[in-house]
Write a structure and sequence with these properties.
about 475 residues, alpha+beta, Beta-Lactamase, Heat Shock Protein 90, 3 domains, five-stranded mixed β-sheet, 9 helices, rod-shaped, disordered C terminus, transferase, protein histidine kinase activity
Protein backbone atom coordinates (compact mmCIF):
# COMPACT_ATOMS: atom_id res chain seq x y z
CA UNK A 1 0.00 0.00 0.00
CA UNK A 2 1.34 3.41 -0.93
CA UNK A 3 2.06 5.85 1.86
CA UNK A 4 0.24 9.13 1.47
CA UNK A 5 1.32 11.88 3.81
CA UNK A 6 -1.43 14.41 4.42
CA UNK A 7 -2.24 16.83 7.25
CA UNK A 8 -5.20 14.63 8.25
CA UNK A 9 -3.09 11.47 8.31
CA UNK A 10 -2.53 9.71 11.62
CA UNK A 11 0.93 8.79 10.36
CA UNK A 12 1.81 12.46 9.80
CA UNK A 13 0.35 13.53 13.13
CA UNK A 14 2.29 10.87 15.01
CA UNK A 15 5.46 11.66 13.07
CA UNK A 16 5.16 15.40 13.78
CA UNK A 17 4.38 14.76 17.45
CA UNK A 18 7.31 12.36 17.70
CA UNK A 19 9.69 14.72 15.91
CA UNK A 20 8.68 17.64 18.12
CA UNK A 21 9.06 15.49 21.24
CA UNK A 22 12.48 14.29 20.11
CA UNK A 23 13.69 17.81 19.31
CA UNK A 24 12.41 19.18 22.62
CA UNK A 25 13.90 16.27 24.56
CA UNK A 26 17.28 16.61 22.87
CA UNK A 27 17.21 20.39 23.35
CA UNK A 28 16.60 19.88 27.05
CA UNK A 29 19.26 17.19 27.12
CA UNK A 30 21.73 19.50 25.35
CA UNK A 31 20.95 22.31 27.77
CA UNK A 32 21.36 19.98 30.72
CA UNK A 33 24.63 18.60 29.41
CA UNK A 34 25.93 22.13 28.85
CA UNK A 35 25.03 23.08 32.43
CA UNK A 36 26.69 19.93 33.74
CA UNK A 37 29.76 20.67 31.67
CA UNK A 38 29.81 24.24 32.99
CA UNK A 39 29.62 22.93 36.55
CA UNK A 40 32.40 20.49 35.78
CA UNK A 41 34.56 23.23 34.26
CA UNK A 42 33.87 25.44 37.27
CA UNK A 43 34.93 22.69 39.65
CA UNK A 44 38.09 22.17 37.64
CA UNK A 45 38.70 25.93 37.70
CA UNK A 46 38.28 25.98 41.49
CA UNK A 47 40.82 23.19 41.79
CA UNK A 48 43.19 25.20 39.60
CA UNK A 49 42.55 28.33 41.63
CA UNK A 50 43.24 26.35 44.78
CA UNK A 51 46.64 25.35 43.41
CA UNK A 52 47.40 28.99 42.51
CA UNK A 53 46.22 30.09 45.95
CA UNK A 54 48.59 27.64 47.62
CA UNK A 55 51.43 28.93 45.45
CA UNK A 56 50.62 32.56 46.32
CA UNK A 57 50.60 31.84 50.07
CA UNK A 58 53.72 29.67 49.84
CA UNK A 59 55.56 32.43 47.95
CA UNK A 60 55.05 35.11 50.67
CA UNK A 61 58.17 36.33 52.48
CA UNK A 62 59.68 39.39 54.15
CA UNK A 63 61.35 42.03 52.03
CA UNK A 64 64.68 43.57 53.13
CA UNK A 65 62.71 46.50 54.54
CA UNK A 66 60.82 44.05 56.75
CA UNK A 67 57.54 44.42 54.95
CA UNK A 68 55.54 41.47 53.63
CA UNK A 69 56.28 40.70 49.97
CA UNK A 70 55.73 38.05 47.34
CA UNK A 71 59.12 37.43 45.79
CA UNK A 72 57.99 34.07 44.31
CA UNK A 73 54.52 34.56 42.73
CA UNK A 74 52.81 31.73 40.80
CA UNK A 75 54.53 30.87 37.56
CA UNK A 76 51.43 31.15 35.31
CA UNK A 77 52.28 33.88 32.76
CA UNK A 78 48.73 35.18 32.83
CA UNK A 79 49.45 36.71 36.24
CA UNK A 80 51.99 39.02 34.61
CA UNK A 81 49.83 40.10 31.64
CA UNK A 82 47.59 43.09 32.41
CA UNK A 83 43.88 42.30 32.52
CA UNK A 84 44.52 38.72 31.42
CA UNK A 85 41.57 37.37 33.38
CA UNK A 86 43.64 35.55 36.04
CA UNK A 87 44.50 37.52 39.17
CA UNK A 88 45.82 37.12 42.71
CA UNK A 89 45.75 39.43 45.71
CA UNK A 90 46.96 39.29 49.33
CA UNK A 91 45.76 41.64 52.07
CA UNK A 92 47.94 41.88 55.20
CA UNK A 93 45.66 43.21 57.90
CA UNK A 94 48.41 44.28 60.35
CA UNK A 95 50.36 46.20 57.72
CA UNK A 96 47.36 47.59 55.90
CA UNK A 97 49.02 46.52 52.70
CA UNK A 98 47.72 44.83 49.55
CA UNK A 99 49.91 42.64 47.37
CA UNK A 100 48.55 41.86 43.93
CA UNK A 101 49.46 40.36 40.60
CA UNK A 102 50.64 42.51 37.70
CA UNK A 103 47.55 41.38 35.79
CA UNK A 104 45.39 43.51 38.14
CA UNK A 105 47.43 46.57 37.13
CA UNK A 106 46.33 49.35 39.48
CA UNK A 107 42.98 47.78 40.41
CA UNK A 108 42.17 45.54 43.35
CA UNK A 109 39.76 42.81 44.21
CA UNK A 110 36.96 44.09 46.40
CA UNK A 111 36.73 41.19 48.82
CA UNK A 112 33.56 41.02 50.93
CA UNK A 113 33.82 41.86 54.61
CA UNK A 114 33.15 38.36 55.88
CA UNK A 115 34.80 36.61 58.82
CA UNK A 116 36.92 33.61 57.94
CA UNK A 117 38.45 31.23 60.38
CA UNK A 118 42.10 30.43 60.00
CA UNK A 119 42.58 28.29 56.90
CA UNK A 120 38.92 28.62 55.86
CA UNK A 121 38.20 29.01 52.13
CA UNK A 122 35.32 30.98 50.58
CA UNK A 123 34.06 31.17 46.99
CA UNK A 124 32.86 34.49 45.62
CA UNK A 125 31.70 36.07 42.41
CA UNK A 126 33.27 39.52 42.20
CA UNK A 127 33.53 42.31 39.67
CA UNK A 128 36.87 42.40 37.88
CA UNK A 129 39.02 45.37 36.88
CA UNK A 130 37.37 45.50 33.44
CA UNK A 131 33.84 44.97 34.75
CA UNK A 132 33.91 41.24 34.07
CA UNK A 133 32.55 38.60 36.43
CA UNK A 134 35.26 36.79 38.37
CA UNK A 135 35.17 33.40 40.02
CA UNK A 136 37.12 34.06 43.22
CA UNK A 137 38.62 31.71 45.77
CA UNK A 138 39.58 33.37 49.11
CA UNK A 139 41.43 31.97 52.11
CA UNK A 140 42.26 33.46 55.49
CA UNK A 141 45.56 32.18 56.89
CA UNK A 142 48.03 33.02 59.68
CA UNK A 143 51.60 33.01 58.37
CA UNK A 144 54.35 31.11 60.25
CA UNK A 145 56.35 32.64 63.08
CA UNK A 146 59.40 33.36 60.95
CA UNK A 147 57.23 35.87 59.07
CA UNK A 148 55.90 37.38 62.27
CA UNK A 149 52.69 35.33 62.35
CA UNK A 150 50.57 37.94 60.58
CA UNK A 151 47.02 37.12 59.46
CA UNK A 152 46.43 37.62 55.74
CA UNK A 153 43.54 37.20 53.26
CA UNK A 154 44.71 35.71 49.99
CA UNK A 155 42.48 35.49 46.93
CA UNK A 156 42.82 34.17 43.38
CA UNK A 157 40.25 35.04 40.71
CA UNK A 158 39.46 33.82 37.20
CA UNK A 159 37.34 35.55 34.57
CA UNK A 160 34.09 33.59 34.11
CA UNK A 161 34.21 34.47 30.41
CA UNK A 162 36.81 31.72 30.04
CA UNK A 163 34.37 29.25 31.60
CA UNK A 164 31.54 30.43 29.37
CA UNK A 165 33.77 30.15 26.31
CA UNK A 166 34.65 26.58 27.22
CA UNK A 167 30.96 25.77 27.73
CA UNK A 168 30.03 27.38 24.40
CA UNK A 169 32.73 25.39 22.62
CA UNK A 170 31.41 22.23 24.24
CA UNK A 171 27.84 23.07 23.12
CA UNK A 172 29.06 23.78 19.58
CA UNK A 173 30.82 20.42 19.48
CA UNK A 174 27.77 18.70 20.95
CA UNK A 175 25.23 20.24 18.56
CA UNK A 176 26.12 18.18 15.43
CA UNK A 177 25.95 14.96 17.42
CA UNK A 178 22.54 15.96 18.81
CA UNK A 179 21.39 16.73 15.26
CA UNK A 180 22.50 13.32 14.02
CA UNK A 181 20.87 11.70 17.04
CA UNK A 182 17.63 13.61 16.40
CA UNK A 183 17.60 12.52 12.78
CA UNK A 184 18.22 8.90 13.75
CA UNK A 185 15.49 8.99 16.37
CA UNK A 186 13.00 10.57 13.94
CA UNK A 187 13.77 7.87 11.37
CA UNK A 188 13.37 5.23 14.07
CA UNK A 189 10.09 6.86 15.11
CA UNK A 190 8.88 6.79 11.50
CA UNK A 191 9.74 3.10 11.25
CA UNK A 192 7.99 2.43 14.53
CA UNK A 193 4.89 4.32 13.37
CA UNK A 194 4.92 2.46 10.05
CA UNK A 195 5.12 -0.91 11.80
CA UNK A 196 2.53 0.13 14.37
CA UNK A 197 0.03 1.30 11.75
CA UNK A 198 0.52 -1.71 9.50
CA UNK A 199 -2.57 -3.47 10.92
CA UNK A 200 -4.67 -0.48 9.81
CA UNK A 201 -3.22 -0.83 6.33
CA UNK A 202 -4.14 -4.50 6.45
CA UNK A 203 -7.70 -3.60 7.44
CA UNK A 204 -7.89 -1.15 4.55
CA UNK A 205 -6.63 -3.81 2.13
CA UNK A 206 -9.13 -6.36 3.40
CA UNK A 207 -12.01 -3.89 3.22
CA UNK A 208 -10.97 -3.29 -0.38
CA UNK A 209 -10.92 -7.06 -0.91
CA UNK A 210 -14.45 -7.28 0.50
CA UNK A 211 -15.57 -4.54 -1.88
CA UNK A 212 -13.83 -6.30 -4.77
CA UNK A 213 -15.40 -9.61 -3.84
CA UNK A 214 -12.20 -11.50 -3.04
CA UNK A 215 -12.99 -11.73 0.68
CA UNK A 216 -16.11 -11.84 2.82
CA UNK A 217 -14.74 -10.93 6.28
CA UNK A 218 -11.79 -9.08 7.78
CA UNK A 219 -10.74 -12.13 9.80
CA UNK A 220 -9.15 -12.50 13.21
CA UNK A 221 -5.39 -12.40 12.56
CA UNK A 222 -4.89 -8.87 13.90
CA UNK A 223 -3.08 -7.53 16.98
CA UNK A 224 -5.04 -7.36 20.22
CA UNK A 225 -5.53 -3.59 19.90
CA UNK A 226 -7.07 -3.85 16.41
CA UNK A 227 -8.90 -7.17 16.68
CA UNK A 228 -11.96 -5.71 18.48
CA UNK A 229 -12.43 -3.28 15.58
CA UNK A 230 -12.15 -6.08 13.02
CA UNK A 231 -14.59 -8.19 15.02
CA UNK A 232 -17.11 -5.34 15.16
CA UNK A 233 -16.82 -4.78 11.41
CA UNK A 234 -17.30 -8.50 10.74
CA UNK A 235 -20.31 -8.48 13.04
CA UNK A 236 -21.71 -5.50 11.17
CA UNK A 237 -21.26 -7.31 7.86
CA UNK A 238 -23.04 -10.36 9.22
CA UNK A 239 -25.90 -8.26 10.55
CA UNK A 240 -26.14 -6.40 7.23
CA UNK A 241 -26.33 -9.65 5.31
CA UNK A 242 -29.15 -10.83 7.54
CA UNK A 243 -31.04 -7.54 7.20
CA UNK A 244 -30.65 -7.53 3.42
CA UNK A 245 -31.70 -11.16 3.15
CA UNK A 246 -34.82 -10.50 5.21
CA UNK A 247 -35.65 -7.37 3.23
CA UNK A 248 -35.15 -9.26 -0.01
CA UNK A 249 -37.39 -12.06 1.16
CA UNK A 250 -40.14 -9.63 2.21
CA UNK A 251 -39.96 -7.76 -1.10
CA UNK A 252 -39.95 -10.98 -3.08
CA UNK A 253 -42.91 -12.33 -1.10
CA UNK A 254 -44.82 -9.13 -1.69
CA UNK A 255 -44.01 -9.08 -5.41
CA UNK A 256 -44.86 -12.75 -5.89
CA UNK A 257 -48.01 -12.29 -3.85
CA UNK A 258 -49.14 -9.64 -6.30
CA UNK A 259 -48.33 -11.68 -9.37
CA UNK A 260 -51.18 -14.14 -8.82
CA UNK A 261 -53.91 -11.47 -8.61
CA UNK A 262 -52.43 -9.87 -11.72
CA UNK A 263 -52.75 -13.15 -13.60
CA UNK A 264 -56.36 -13.33 -12.46
CA UNK A 265 -56.93 -9.79 -13.74
CA UNK A 266 -55.38 -10.75 -17.08
CA UNK A 267 -57.90 -13.60 -17.36
CA UNK A 268 -60.75 -11.24 -16.46
CA UNK A 269 -59.56 -8.77 -19.11
CA UNK A 270 -59.64 -11.51 -21.75
CA UNK A 271 -63.18 -12.56 -20.75
CA UNK A 272 -64.36 -8.95 -20.78
CA UNK A 273 -63.04 -8.49 -24.31
CA UNK A 274 -64.80 -11.70 -25.39
CA UNK A 275 -68.04 -10.37 -23.92
CA UNK A 276 -67.68 -7.07 -25.81
CA UNK A 277 -66.73 -4.81 -22.87
CA UNK A 278 -63.61 -3.65 -24.69
CA UNK A 279 -63.37 -0.20 -23.04
CA UNK A 280 -63.60 -1.60 -19.54
CA UNK A 281 -61.12 -4.33 -20.46
CA UNK A 282 -58.66 -1.75 -21.80
CA UNK A 283 -58.87 0.33 -18.63
CA UNK A 284 -58.33 -2.71 -16.41
CA UNK A 285 -55.48 -3.84 -18.68
CA UNK A 286 -53.76 -0.46 -18.36
CA UNK A 287 -54.00 -0.58 -14.56
CA UNK A 288 -52.81 -4.18 -14.48
CA UNK A 289 -49.91 -3.34 -16.80
CA UNK A 290 -48.81 -0.50 -14.51
CA UNK A 291 -49.05 -2.82 -11.50
CA UNK A 292 -47.12 -5.50 -13.36
CA UNK A 293 -44.32 -3.03 -14.05
CA UNK A 294 -44.06 -2.21 -10.37
CA UNK A 295 -44.06 -5.89 -9.48
CA UNK A 296 -41.31 -6.66 -11.99
CA UNK A 297 -39.29 -3.72 -10.74
CA UNK A 298 -39.62 -4.81 -7.11
CA UNK A 299 -38.65 -8.37 -8.01
CA UNK A 300 -35.50 -7.10 -9.69
CA UNK A 301 -34.76 -4.74 -6.82
CA UNK A 302 -35.27 -7.51 -4.29
CA UNK A 303 -32.88 -9.72 -6.21
CA UNK A 304 -30.22 -7.05 -6.55
CA UNK A 305 -30.57 -5.98 -2.92
CA UNK A 306 -28.86 -9.17 -1.79
CA UNK A 307 -25.66 -7.12 -1.66
CA UNK A 308 -23.35 -10.06 -0.99
CA UNK A 309 -24.15 -13.47 -2.46
CA UNK A 310 -22.39 -16.38 -4.06
CA UNK A 311 -21.00 -14.66 -7.14
CA UNK A 312 -20.23 -17.69 -9.26
CA UNK A 313 -22.37 -19.96 -11.42
CA UNK A 314 -22.25 -22.12 -14.57
CA UNK A 315 -24.14 -20.37 -17.38
CA UNK A 316 -24.70 -23.69 -19.17
CA UNK A 317 -26.70 -25.03 -16.22
CA UNK A 318 -28.71 -21.80 -15.85
CA UNK A 319 -29.47 -21.66 -19.59
CA UNK A 320 -30.56 -25.30 -19.62
CA UNK A 321 -33.07 -24.67 -16.83
CA UNK A 322 -34.51 -21.57 -18.51
CA UNK A 323 -34.74 -23.24 -21.93
CA UNK A 324 -36.41 -26.24 -20.33
CA UNK A 325 -39.16 -23.98 -19.01
CA UNK A 326 -39.57 -21.80 -22.13
CA UNK A 327 -39.67 -24.67 -24.62
CA UNK A 328 -42.71 -26.12 -22.82
CA UNK A 329 -44.69 -23.00 -23.65
CA UNK A 330 -46.48 -22.37 -26.97
CA UNK A 331 -43.79 -19.99 -28.24
CA UNK A 332 -40.89 -22.27 -27.37
CA UNK A 333 -42.37 -25.57 -28.41
CA UNK A 334 -42.38 -24.61 -32.08
CA UNK A 335 -38.66 -23.72 -32.15
CA UNK A 336 -35.42 -25.60 -32.53
CA UNK A 337 -33.04 -24.89 -29.65
CA UNK A 338 -29.23 -24.93 -29.89
CA UNK A 339 -27.29 -24.74 -26.62
CA UNK A 340 -23.56 -24.20 -27.21
CA UNK A 341 -22.32 -23.00 -23.85
CA UNK A 342 -19.33 -24.97 -22.46
CA UNK A 343 -20.29 -26.94 -19.39
CA UNK A 344 -17.16 -25.87 -17.46
CA UNK A 345 -17.57 -22.16 -18.19
CA UNK A 346 -18.11 -20.10 -15.03
CA UNK A 347 -19.28 -16.50 -14.71
CA UNK A 348 -19.01 -14.04 -11.83
CA UNK A 349 -22.73 -13.57 -11.17
CA UNK A 350 -25.29 -15.06 -8.84
CA UNK A 351 -27.14 -17.99 -10.40
CA UNK A 352 -30.60 -16.56 -9.61
CA UNK A 353 -29.63 -13.19 -11.12
CA UNK A 354 -28.39 -14.88 -14.30
CA UNK A 355 -31.65 -16.85 -14.41
CA UNK A 356 -33.55 -13.56 -14.32
CA UNK A 357 -31.39 -12.13 -17.12
CA UNK A 358 -31.47 -15.19 -19.39
CA UNK A 359 -35.18 -15.70 -18.66
CA UNK A 360 -36.00 -12.27 -20.06
CA UNK A 361 -33.69 -12.66 -23.06
CA UNK A 362 -34.76 -16.22 -23.96
CA UNK A 363 -38.46 -15.39 -23.62
CA UNK A 364 -37.99 -12.44 -25.98
CA UNK A 365 -36.04 -14.59 -28.42
CA UNK A 366 -38.70 -17.33 -28.35
CA UNK A 367 -41.46 -14.79 -28.96
CA UNK A 368 -39.80 -13.27 -32.04
CA UNK A 369 -37.78 -16.19 -33.52
CA UNK A 370 -38.94 -17.77 -36.77
CA UNK A 371 -37.55 -21.28 -36.42
CA UNK A 372 -34.68 -21.45 -33.93
CA UNK A 373 -32.87 -19.90 -30.99
CA UNK A 374 -29.16 -20.42 -30.35
CA UNK A 375 -27.32 -19.89 -27.06
CA UNK A 376 -23.52 -19.59 -27.14
CA UNK A 377 -20.89 -18.86 -24.53
CA UNK A 378 -17.14 -18.38 -24.40
CA UNK A 379 -14.41 -16.90 -22.24
CA UNK A 380 -12.91 -13.68 -23.61
CA UNK A 381 -9.90 -12.16 -21.81
CA UNK A 382 -11.10 -11.32 -18.30
CA UNK A 383 -14.78 -11.65 -19.16
CA UNK A 384 -17.39 -14.22 -20.14
CA UNK A 385 -19.57 -13.59 -23.18
CA UNK A 386 -22.98 -15.19 -23.68
CA UNK A 387 -25.19 -14.68 -26.74
CA UNK A 388 -28.90 -15.36 -27.26
CA UNK A 389 -29.47 -15.45 -31.03
CA UNK A 390 -32.80 -15.73 -32.79
CA UNK A 391 -33.66 -15.83 -36.51
CA UNK A 392 -36.57 -13.45 -36.24
CA UNK A 393 -37.03 -10.05 -37.89
CA UNK A 394 -34.42 -8.44 -35.65
CA UNK A 395 -34.32 -4.80 -34.52
CA UNK A 396 -33.12 -1.92 -36.63
CA UNK A 397 -29.87 -0.37 -35.41
CA UNK A 398 -31.49 3.03 -34.81
CA UNK A 399 -34.16 1.46 -32.56
CA UNK A 400 -31.91 -0.64 -30.33
CA UNK A 401 -31.15 2.10 -27.82
CA UNK A 402 -34.87 2.75 -27.37
CA UNK A 403 -35.56 -0.93 -26.67
CA UNK A 404 -33.32 -0.76 -23.63
CA UNK A 405 -35.32 2.12 -22.16
CA UNK A 406 -37.70 1.09 -19.44
CA UNK A 407 -41.23 0.40 -20.63
CA UNK A 408 -40.48 0.76 -24.34
CA UNK A 409 -42.08 -1.87 -26.60
CA UNK A 410 -41.70 -2.08 -30.36
CA UNK A 411 -44.30 -4.83 -30.64
CA UNK A 412 -47.34 -3.50 -28.78
CA UNK A 413 -49.62 -6.24 -30.05
CA UNK A 414 -47.97 -9.07 -28.17
CA UNK A 415 -47.70 -9.69 -24.44
CA UNK A 416 -45.07 -8.04 -22.29
CA UNK A 417 -44.40 -4.88 -20.32
CA UNK A 418 -41.22 -3.56 -21.91
CA UNK A 419 -39.32 -4.11 -18.63
CA UNK A 420 -37.44 -7.33 -19.42
CA UNK A 421 -34.39 -5.90 -21.19
CA UNK A 422 -33.96 -2.85 -18.90
CA UNK A 423 -34.21 -5.02 -15.78
CA UNK A 424 -31.72 -7.47 -17.25
CA UNK A 425 -29.44 -4.56 -18.03
CA UNK A 426 -29.70 -3.28 -14.43
CA UNK A 427 -28.88 -6.71 -13.02
CA UNK A 428 -25.84 -7.04 -15.26
CA UNK A 429 -24.63 -3.55 -14.39
CA UNK A 430 -24.83 -4.41 -10.70
CA UNK A 431 -22.43 -7.31 -11.30
CA UNK A 432 -20.09 -5.31 -13.53
CA UNK A 433 -21.52 -6.75 -16.75
CA UNK A 434 -23.17 -5.28 -19.81
CA UNK A 435 -25.85 -6.02 -22.41
CA UNK A 436 -25.60 -5.18 -26.13
CA UNK A 437 -27.83 -5.77 -29.13
CA UNK A 438 -26.19 -6.96 -32.37
CA UNK A 439 -27.11 -8.38 -35.73
CA UNK A 440 -27.31 -12.15 -35.74
CA UNK A 441 -24.25 -13.74 -37.37
CA UNK A 442 -24.59 -15.37 -40.76
CA UNK A 443 -27.02 -14.70 -43.62
CA UNK A 444 -30.56 -13.52 -43.08
CA UNK A 445 -32.13 -11.40 -40.40
CA UNK A 446 -32.14 -11.97 -36.70
CA UNK A 447 -30.99 -10.46 -33.40
CA UNK A 448 -28.10 -11.41 -31.16
CA UNK A 449 -28.16 -10.22 -27.55
CA UNK A 450 -24.62 -10.23 -26.19
CA UNK A 451 -24.22 -10.53 -22.41
CA UNK A 452 -20.80 -9.67 -20.98
CA UNK A 453 -20.05 -10.91 -17.48
CA UNK A 454 -16.94 -10.80 -15.27
CA UNK A 455 -15.00 -13.93 -14.44
CA UNK A 456 -15.68 -15.32 -10.96
CA UNK A 457 -13.29 -13.79 -8.43
CA UNK A 458 -13.15 -16.98 -6.40
CA UNK A 459 -15.21 -20.09 -5.94
CA UNK A 460 -17.18 -18.65 -3.01
CA UNK A 461 -17.00 -15.05 -4.15
CA UNK A 462 -19.15 -12.61 -2.30
CA UNK A 463 -19.37 -9.73 -4.70
CA UNK A 464 -20.51 -6.40 -3.26
CA UNK A 465 -22.80 -4.59 -5.60
CA UNK A 466 -24.40 -1.18 -5.71
CA UNK A 467 -28.12 -1.16 -6.17
CA UNK A 468 -29.00 0.91 -9.26
CA UNK A 469 -31.96 3.22 -9.35
CA UNK A 470 -34.65 1.11 -10.98
Amino acid sequence: MGTRLAPSSIRVRLLIAGAVSIVVALALAGTGLSLLFERHVERRALVELGVHLDQVIAGLDRAPDGRLAAPQPPADPRFTRPLSGLYWQVEAEAEDRVLRSRSLWDARLDLPADELRDGQVHEHTLDGPAGQSLLTLERSVTLPGRLGSPKVRAAVALDRADLRAATAAFAADLLPYLGVLALGLIVASWLQITVGLRPLAAIRARVGAIRAGTASRLGSDFPDEVQPLAAEVDGLLTAREGDVARARARAADLAHGLKTPLQVLAGDVARLRESGAVDVADEIDQVATAMRRHVERELARARLAAGMLDGSCRPAEVAARVVGVVRRGPAGARLTWHERIPADLRAGIDGDDLTEVLGALIENAARHAATSVTLTGAAADEAVELRVIDDGPGIAAEQRAAVLDRGTRLDTAGPGTGLGLPIAQDILAAWGGALDLEDAPGPGSGLAVRVTLPRPRRADSRAPRHLPML
